[in-house]
Amino acid sequence: PPGPPHPALQPHQGRTPAQTGPPPKTLHHATSRQLVHFPALVVVVISAAALQALTTQGPPPEATPVPIAGGEAVTWNEVDRLISEQKFEAASDAVEAIRERARGQGDAAEWTRALVEETKLRMALHGYETAVRFLRAEPWPEDALSQAVLELYYANSLATYARVYSWEIRRRDRVETEGEVDLKKWDLEQILEEADRAFLEVWSAREEWGSESLGELSRYIHQNNYPPRIRGTLRDAVTYLWVELLANSSFWSPSESNEVFQLDLPALINGDLKTSAELDLADSTIHPLLKIDALLDDLEGWHNANGGVEAALETRLERLRRLHAAFDTEDDRLTIRQYLEELQESFDSSLEWWSTGQSTLAEFIRLEADPDALVRARAAALAGRDRHPGSIGGQRCNHIVASIEAPSYSLAAMAVDGAGRRSLQVTHRNFTELHFRAWRYDLRRFVESSEDYNIQPGHREAEEIMACLPDAEWSIDIPPTPDYRSHITYDVPQLEEPGAYLVVASMRADFANRGNQMVAENFILSDLVLVRRHVGSGYEVTVRSGAS
């Protein structure tokens, strides 16, 4: 479903509006210890090379022959071909030749691209640490835009390295390297300090290039699905990337995590451009939330000064999202939500980004514990959906409404119970009827023929059992759930003959696969109860009648 738009320097992912049709068929088979979902499992695999490729190539420019060893010429098209064939060593040599040629000619754009591409190839060949050290050690073009791109790429490379290798990095002791970039020796604090320094370096020059659109820089920075008017400048990309790093609480020190409650939440919510301008962003002792506030104050003020009303609203929404994630007490989150409600009331609802504010508001309300929270969240999302149905915010609101209204249930059963007992527990919401079928099977034969540790049918055996006619069939009415929350209903299995059963629940009376959710449970109908206790190295088991 369409989630919030993602910041720059992230792989682009297509978004589609939420589907409002019936849920797909899923068959679950549960034992008392585990729940197995089938028939399908979808796995997304990301290769290491893809993970290391922090930037994405744009369309190749016009072919520019570059001489390499032996008098042969190479073009970017040739580099692309070598990469597609996974000939990274040859591609790295070719890019090195292009870099040297561009540097000699003073071609800043070509030089910058070659540095980035060669760093990516070195990551694939030699590892993260040496590639980042190469990027930092090589000469850079002197123009402000190239410096900004390379500093940004360098900072984001450090941040990604810290995220991906955090487990190994946290085991290191601090070693002073006297200014040398050596990721293999740096601890987490040193890596983050260097990333902050790089972000500050490029952010400090924002007045020189801040209004630049991504344009040619889209080769290095993906706009993703934010409209250009919202996060379309390099200044936006730099600010939001730095905010993303600072907001990662897994990088915070214990004292920073423990001191959140001491921060002035109302002041953080409202912001103060004058106070933020005086904050020393290079000071590592300042709390990350204060730095986030200062960065977003600066960006919001710049957008307001340039007439970017919707972009300014997005900076305010981003501030509230980060604060809502950091302050987790009920009172603090209520304060943040109430401020957002007032903000939405004062903002021009004829502008599309108002619906994005409504989607954020609905998400905040949805997390509250009040019994009517989902009702209020749905109402807020409906307002955003109906006001601008085709916008990003409208689609997000539509998804929130659909997910709140979606029917769902789960089934639990007693492992063994007597006849006429409430042995089935249904946790449900947003539908009115549930249907059951039960198949009786020979438990003794199943145990004797089992080739693994399962002494009752699993999902594979369940499908085989269900291929026969059921031994019993019944339906129950489900009470309405006007609050859209899950409620519990108990049911008595309509079974008479003692034995082992596979009980399957279905939202459709015909138990068809399409648009259905089916759940299977093992259940033994028996009056017998086993009572066991340890005796020496064994057990003493007493069989009793459950009725008496």
Strand content: 5-15%
Q: Helix content range of the residues, please? A: 40-55%
Shape: globular
Question: Cα-atom Rg, whole angstroms?
Answer: 30 Å
Q: Main β-sheet: number of strands, strand sense, barrel status?
A: 7 strands, mixed
- Describe the oligomeric state of these chains in a short phrase: single chain
Per DSSP, the total helix count is 22
- Report the span from N to C terminus: 54 Å
Low-confidence stretches: 1-71
Number of strands: 14
What class would the helix/strand composition place it in?
Answer: alpha+beta
Provide mean pLDDT, rounded: 85
Fold blueprint:
Layout: E1 26-30, E2 35-38, H1 48-52, E3 66-67, E4 73-74, H2 76-84, H3 88-105, H4 108-126, H5 128-137, H6 144-164, H7 166-169, H8 188-204, H9 206-209, H10 228-231, H11 234-247, H12 254-258, H13 265-270, H14 273-277, H15 288-305, H16 309-326, H17 330-346, H18 353-366, H19 373-387, H20 392-405, E5 408-413, E6 416-417, E7 424-429, E8 433-441, H21 443-449, H22 459-465, E9 472-477, E10 487-491, E11 499-506, E12 517-525, E13 528-535, E14 538-545
Parallel strand pairs: 1-12, 6-12
Antiparallel strand pairs: 1-2, 3-4, 5-7, 7-10, 8-9, 8-11, 11-12, 13-14
